[in-house]
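Researcher: I'd like a candidate sequence for this fold, 361 residues long. If you have to choose between options at a position, lean toward the conservative one.
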């Protein structure tokens, strides 16, 4: 819980009726985030609906530019189009936006932040802060630990991503297809181009000209930005699997200096929020079902990759709840940091205040 409790702190959640938005509200409540007013916003489809938040009934408002008047922090998860249109309007009205869409992530003037990896980047914000893609989010904490101790030469990551990341309709589609299979009926696919039940689809988001999917390319570009390694060599294959919640990743890292699995486990365990689960003899390793509903980034199956000489290769498995740490919880953690560090106002405004105070003295 933030130490600096302002006397007035108005928080808005845009997309409050969606899968991530609902989780954002839940995490704000769980963490006792010190808001004095909570505004739940969505499109005209849900405006006027009542939602219960910790025993209090809230009416969902329409997300318009004026809805941000007086709002200090707005958490957005309502799609890229809404963010492109409304985040600048909110920022203009003095709101700091923490945006979960991909609309602003690669804008050089927008900090892209994972709470335990590059929190200091928040200090530079000018009203919009980006929350990374869920697959990037769980990858960078262990990579940060390796970067800082032994350096990183190259990363190869393959993801096993749950349908929960696509939204509620994908969860329903997987359930329907499982039922159809059990009853001998054809499996109807509408959310994904092929049945997801009993399948693995190497296709998340659209294909780009370079042959990668947009999801895979986000992992490349966002990891470089968050880790401050603009030249990082990284390749990703992103796969949708019939799992309801939590993404899993097989990660292969070529390090600059030698490192043993035991040293890597100790490094990973030292990162805030990272939990090492690595006792294969007793069938202990990170699992999607166990990670679901928690905020941890779980790392296990840490082993030397013998295909790289000189003990400079590591392989490991990373699992995290994509709706929580992969989206909502990180966004709330960023809001907590803004409050605790006194960074709610834009960097330029804070500097102006500092300069005025300095000249007066
Ligand atoms: P609504 O309930 O009004 O459709 P999900 O990712 O689970 O599909 O959720 C998307 C969220 O984004 C929902 O809360 C949805 O609200 C909201 N949303 C979608 N389009 C807009 C928009 N143009 N303005 C505000 N909220 C939007």
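Model: Candidate sequence:
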């Amino acid at each position: 819980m933030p130490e600096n409790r302002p006397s007035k702190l108005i928080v808005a959640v845009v997309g409050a009726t969606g899968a991530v938005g609902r989780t954002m509200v839940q995490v704000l409540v769980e963490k006792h985030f010190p808001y004095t007013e909570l505004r739940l916003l969505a499109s005209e489809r849900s405006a006027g609906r009542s939602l219960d938040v910790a025993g209090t009934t809230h009416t969902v408002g329409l997300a318009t530019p004026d809805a941000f008047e007086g709002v200090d922090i707005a958490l957005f998860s309502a799609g890229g189009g809404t963010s492109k249109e409304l985040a600048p309007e909110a920022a203009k009205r003095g709101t700091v936006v923490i945006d979960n869409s991909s609309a602003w992530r690669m804008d050089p003037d927008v900090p892209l932040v994972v709470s335990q990896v590059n929190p200091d980047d928040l200090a530079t914000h000018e009203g919009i802060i980006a929350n990374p893609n869920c697959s990037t989010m769980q990858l960078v904490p262990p990579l940060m630990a390796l970067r800082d101790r032994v350096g990183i030469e190259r990363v190869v990551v393959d993801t096993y991503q749950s349908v929960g990341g696509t939204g509620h309709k994908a969860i329903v589609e997987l359930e329907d297809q499982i039922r159809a299979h059990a009853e001998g009926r054809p499996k109807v696919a509408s959310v994904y181009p092929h049945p997801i039940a009993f399948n693995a689809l190497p296709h998340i988001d659209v294909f780009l000209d370079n042959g990668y999917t947009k999801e895979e390319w986000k992992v490349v570009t966002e990891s470089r930005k968050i880790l401050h390694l603009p030249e990082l060599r990284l390749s990703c294959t992103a796969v949708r699997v019939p799992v309801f919640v939590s993404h899993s990743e097989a990660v292969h890292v070529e390090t600059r200096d030698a490192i043993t699995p035991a040293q890597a486990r100790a490094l990973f365990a030292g990162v805030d929020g990272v939990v090492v689960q690595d006792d294969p003899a007793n069938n202990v390793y990170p699992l999607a079902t166990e990670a679901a509903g928690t905020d941890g980034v779980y790392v296990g199956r840490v082993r030397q990759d013998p295909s790289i000489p000189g003990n400079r290769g590591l392989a490991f498995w990373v699992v995290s709840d994509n709706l929580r740490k992969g989206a909502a919880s990180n966004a709330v953690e960023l809001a907590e940091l803004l409050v605790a560090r006194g960074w709610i106002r834009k960097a330029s405004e804070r500097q102006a205040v500092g300069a005025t105070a300095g000249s007066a003295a």
